[in-house]
Structures are given as structure tokens and as C-alpha cells.
Amino acid sequence: MAYEALLLVGFGGPERPEDVLPFLANVTRGRGVPPERLAEVAEHYQHFGGVSPINQQNRDLLAAIRADFAANGVDLPVYWGNRNWHPMLADTVAQMRADGIGTALAFVTSAYGGYSSCRQYQEDLVAARSAVGPEAPMIDKLRQFWDHPGFVEPHTDAVRAALATLDPARRATTRLVFTAHSVPTAMAAAAGPQGGRYEAQLRETAALVAAAAAPDLGYDLVWQSRSGPPHVPWLEPDVNDHLALLAADGVSSVVVSPIGFVSDHLEVVWDLDTEAAATAKRLGLDFARAGTPGTDPRFVSMVRELVVERVNPPDTSPRRRLGTLPVWDTCPAGCCVPARRP
Ligand SMILES: CC1=C(CCC(=O)O)c2cc3nc(cc4[nH]c(cc5[nH]c(cc1n2)c(C)c5CCC(=O)O)c(CCC(=O)O)c4C)C(CCC(=O)O)=C3C
Ligand SMILES: [Fe+2]
């Protein structure tokens, strides 16, 4: 299969105060998120002048991928479209069609399996293609990359760098706290062909990063940014509750590493740098938040590797990875499906 373009697929975020509510309406349409939660989240965005950092981060990633392709002889145009805000996927796919693109690969800015992190993006691509019509390009999503060295190594270095800001005399009472976006437990149970794949992959990534960054320290995987109505169970514990437990257990210092994400978007700069940092302060815990891959050259090169491995036969282009959970190019039918709310 010859591919004629790469499409970078982002979550999208508002870039003006007046865009916050329409953006949130796009994110939560049909998802049963209560209005109180929406008002609260709108306020998080307004703290940053109504500007989510995520679109600029994706512009930076787009530029870095283009430069990396050019420097390494990969002659493919790179496009960018979002699930929830401009540039919207349907507009980008229309542009691809106008440019004569017939087949493309998609790199989605989420490393993991699961409905929100994988399948929903594939549904978004299908919807964008059908909005464009029968001439729309074919678009295949690249594989999940939770255990790719280009994702794990930047997270590992970020944990090391965060640890280096903490008091070495307190190392014995320092703990690593990995976080990812919580999802409804029903969605987590339905993730992947046998279920539980979102959490299993996160546990694998956490173990890989912890072993490489600080094998002497204990670590946990906990959850952040819970949404939805209160009566629906979501993955727990929440990072803030967990910090309280750690403090009560004699932990003095924490490194919080958002391995669930690829960039420092709003759920990182608000939910961790603002809320979890305040929780840690109240509890008397020393707190350091580890960075995310962003435009780390290893992460950018990973995108190219995923393209090249997909185009070449596996024996000429081995799938680089550090973990052992199964990985595939094309999700099996029914993968992550019954995940939605009733
Ligand atoms: C698994 C997962 C990821 C990681 C995978 C990936 O990266 O895609 C992720 C990322 C993100 N989530 C984001 C923002 C939001 N997520 C929401 C709501 C929800 N997220 C969910 C899951 C996830 N979300 C779910 C199950 C919901 C409930 C509604 C539904 O069933 O879909 C809401 C609604 C309000 C609220 O929080 O209640 C907002 C505003 C932003 C952008 C931040 C920025 O603007 O910088 C990013 C990168
Ligand atoms: Fe989210």
C-alpha cells in the first residue's frame, strides 16, 4: 500500500474566550456530562484567557514532523485536523481531497487503546471522510505507541529531571505517581479485544518508565480529570485523593508524571500544575511535575518510524517497542465498542 500523506489528528482546544463553550459542546455532545461539570471546566479554560495550549502544541509538532520528514527523505505532505475544534478533521480531509490525496496514514496524539483514546478518533476519521463524500481519501490509523521507545524515553528523562529538582536527602520517602485521564469503568472494561487494554497499557508504560528512571522508588498509577455524572463509576483513585494517602503514609515528596498524555495541555497545566500541586502543598508534600514528550526529537522521529514500518514489510522494518502486550496495525472489528454510556 502506498500512502500519499500523513494526517496528524489532535483533540483540539479553544484559542479565544468565546470559543470555550462551543468547544465544550463539541466535546460533550451526547456524552451525558452534567452542566455543573461543564461550567467548572469552562472556568479552568478561562483561567488561561480562554486559550488551551493544545493547538499550539500540535502546530509545533506538525512543524517538527515536517522538518524530520524532510531531513530523512520521507517525501509526504503532513496535514493536521482535530476532533473537537478548528482546524476540524472534516475541513482538513476536504483539503486533502482537493490536493488529490487518495490514501493517507493518521497519527493520533494518544498512545493508548480504549474508546476515547483510539476508537473514537477512528470514528471521527470515518465521519470526516463521509462528510467529504465518496472521493475522500482512505485513511489508516497508525498503531498505538504506549511502549515505543520514542514515547517511553522522553517520559523517562522527564521523570529523572523532575526528581533532580527534589531534595536528595528525602529520596527514601520520595514516590513516583503516574497519571492518566480517568474514564468510566465500563469504558475501561471494554478497551481492546479482550477488555482492560487502556489500563494494562498504562501499567506497562508506568513500569517501563519507573524501572528506567528510578528503580529504587515505589510508584503508583492513578487517575485525573474525572468527568461525567457522579453516579457513573470512573477509574479511581483520583490523583488528589492518592496524594493524601501517600502523605498519611509518610511520603515526603512526589514526582507526578502524566504518562497518559503526549503534551502539556490544559488537563496537565490545570489539573496537575494547579490543582494537584495545591493539594500537595496543603499536605506538606514536595511536588515536582514531570514533563511530556511534546516535540522531543525522539518522539518526533517515532512518528516517522511508525510511518516507515507501516509501509515496509515487518522483516525489513522491525516494530520497535519495549513492552510485551500485543500490538497490531489494524484494530479488530468490535474493539472498544460497547464502551459508551447506555
Ligand atoms: C482517555 C481520554 C484522554 C486521553 C486521550 C487523548 O488525548 O485523546 C483525553 C484527553 C483530553 N481531554 C481533553 C479535554 C476534555 N475531556 C473531556 C471529557 C472526557 N475526556 C475523556 C477521556 C479522555 N480525554 C472522557 C471519557 C470524557 C467524558 C466525555 C466523553 O465521554 O467523551 C472534557 C469535557 C469536560 C470535562 O472534563 O468534564 C474536556 C474539555 C483534552 C484537551 C485539553 C486541552 O484543551 O488542552 C485532552 C487532550
Ligand atoms: Fe478528556
Provide a short characterization of the protein structure.
Involved in coproporphyrin-dependent heme b biosynthesis. Catalyzes the insertion of ferrous iron into coproporphyrin III to form Fe-coproporphyrin III. The protein has helices at residues 20-28, 35-47, 54-71, 89-98, 115-132, 149-163, 185-189, 197-213, 239-248, 266-269, 271-283, 297-311, and strands at 6-10, 78-82, 103-108, 138-141, 174-181, 219-224, 253-257, 286-289. It is globular, with a radius of gyration of 20 Å.
Q: Main attributes?
A:
342 residues; Rossmann fold; binds coproporphyrin III; binds fe (ii) ion; 12 helices; alpha/beta
Helix and strand topology:
Elements lengths: L5 E5 L9 H9 L6 H13 L6 H18 L6 E5 L6 H10 L4 E6 L6 H18 L5 E4 L7 H15 L10 E8 L3 H5 L7 H17 L5 E6 L14 H10 L4 E5 L8 H4 L1 H13 L2 E4 L7 H15 L31
Helix pairs in contact: 3-12, 4-5, 6-8, 6-12, 9-11
The structure holds coproporphyrin III and fe (ii) ion.
The site of coproporphyrin III has 25 residues, from helix 1, helix 2, helix 5 and helix 10.
Keywords: Cytoplasm, Heme biosynthesis, Iron, Lyase, Metal-binding, Porphyrin biosynthesis
Pathway: Porphyrin-containing compound metabolism; protoheme biosynthesis
Catalytic activity: Fe-coproporphyrin III + 2 H(+) = coproporphyrin III + Fe(2+)
